[in-house]
Amino acid sequence: VNGPIYLDYQATTPLAPEAAAAMRPWLESNFANPHSSYRLGREAAAAVEVARQRVFEALTNPLPARRGGLGVGAHEASAAVSDTHPPPTPHGVQGGELYFTSGATEAINWALKGTAARLPPGRRRIVTLATEHAAVLDTVAWLAGQGVDVDILPVAPDGLVDLGTIEAALAQPTGLVAAMLVNNEIGVVQPVAEIGLPSPAATARCSCATRSRASAACRCRSAAATWWRCPPTRCTDQGHRRPVAWRTAWQ
Amino acid sequence: MDTPVPSRIYLDHASTTPILPQAADAMRAACDAWANPSSPHAEGRAVRAKLEDARRRIAAALGWDGTLIFTSGATEAISLVFERAKAGDFIVSAVEHPAVLRSAPDARQIAVRGDGTLDLHDLDRALDGADRPLVAVQSVNNETGVVHPIAEVAARVKAAGGLLLVDCAQSAGKLPVPDADFVVVAAHKFGGPPGIGALLVRDTATLAAIGGQEGGFRPGTAAVPSIMGFAAACEADHGWYEEAKRLRARLDEGILAAGGEVVAGEAPRIATIACYRMPGVPGASQMMRLDLAGIAVTAGSACASGSLKTSHVLTAMGYPEEAAREIIRVSFGPQTQEADIDALLGEYRALIGKRRAA
After folding, report:
1. Among A36, A140, A244, which would you mutate to test the B interface (most chain B Cβ atoms within 10 Å of its Cβ)?
2. Could you list the active site residues of B?
3. Residues A173-189: tens digit of each pLDDT
4. To the nearest whole angstrom, how far is the Cα of B220 from the nearest Cα of chain A?
5. How far is A241 from chain B (nearest CA, A)?
6. B6-20, B33-47, B254-268, B299-313 — which is least confidently predicted?
7. Contact call for residues B66 and B83 (beta carbons, < 8 A)
8. Cα separation of B135 and B107, whole Å?
9. Average pLDDT of the segment spanning A199-206
10. Coil, strand, or helix at residue B328?
11. Burial call B238-265: b when 16+ CB within 10 Å, e when fewer
């Protein structure tokens, strides 16, 4: 009997058999709290750290040799935007840390609210795109209510943000840019690497600040931004869309 | 012949619990129904129906007739209330879980009495003149098992025009859920999976909505397999609690006979959590010795162990710093057997004997 045809992988994906198999021992026999200091707890903590490293390596694996790994989508994304701008680095996220969250929504809330809370008075400004997921738009709307200057940039008819628009927005001192790598409704790949590059204007305007450019956040739905290189960076994604969440340390 | 590997005796159910077989079964089945419950197609609607059914089953099992919002666990549910309850002053008991104390670091703290129960006179003083207070008192303390007088607290908070948040992480699945404005539950404390919990809300008008899933109160795709495990764990037979009372009485007796002290022994305590002091022996040493003997207990709560911080709970009860470090927590679940208790007592007596010899 043929099953129904499912063509909504952007909403969520079937649980991979490998993922189900990896979960099984933790449903059936292992269960300890990884924060407990007796042996069972230490074993659980070790398993979490091994998993953290595996996720991190899968997300940062060199491209495109890895077949079926998480980097494939990013390679395509990278190729799509590299006609005039070569991918900045082949390995993407350099260093940084990966924190597990309950999903992309929590990671986005954490990155945006956590960063906004630490921005100096002159740079309490967040730039994002009109086509972001509700998780970003709802959060920046909340931050706007808290007194953060939020600039929501339009996109061109092809769904992409114009780099000139980004540059103009970054001419004002900006604390954070939130841009999704792949749009969840139409699949366009934003030029996230270029958005993250220091803008001459921004550098000029912010030269007296500790950091010479806006820190940037990218949302990596559907593809891992393994070529991302603009620390401090916060990248998020969700296990059921393949990658998990990561977040580099605040500098 | 090889020495048989002794099987582990797990006596730290207050930290987390083994996932019950029926919860694991429910999760395995739910992994086959993986669609996003917010999707409008047939697959999504089918999962939505299961999700809403689980919500009803959990509320029914807990005896809750208000709203139930799924969260990633107790910590998120607690921080959600402190961020978004329509309230003024924060008032919390001094012995709350760190999840509460960190969510409300500037809150007025209510003292506890020497036996570990909430000081209702201090609560009255705090409520006097408070502006639309949000009061947080746990049902059961996670380190000592002390049961707080929630009905008395609720009456006072209501009279003061405030809102009451009760952290039931340690009591849900064992004791009835109290009547409060907000109740917090974590599935992994009673045989469900980690990473899922719920906020029970009496009147959603008391909480600011922010849009997204869960009626606009908690955005994010629902973790359906975890929710299915949560529901199955809620519906499990909790009749073993009577047996836990007997086992705990046996353990208390044995500890006292060996020369240990029962912390909060005079207070009403949940039968599944006990806290013991062995004078002169740091809790961390006791824990390590027992761990080597194959018995998992904890020195303080899991969240605080690993660090050498003195328990804020014991400190609030008036224990001097030295004495507050000499405690272990022993906690039971449905798998706990009398033989486990006797094995612990055997090791305990040996440990206390060594101290005397030293």
Report:
1. A36
2. 303
3. 999 999 999 999 999 99
4. 5
5. 11
6. B299-313
7. no
8. 9
9. 40
10. strand
11. bebbeebeebbeebbebbeebebebbbb
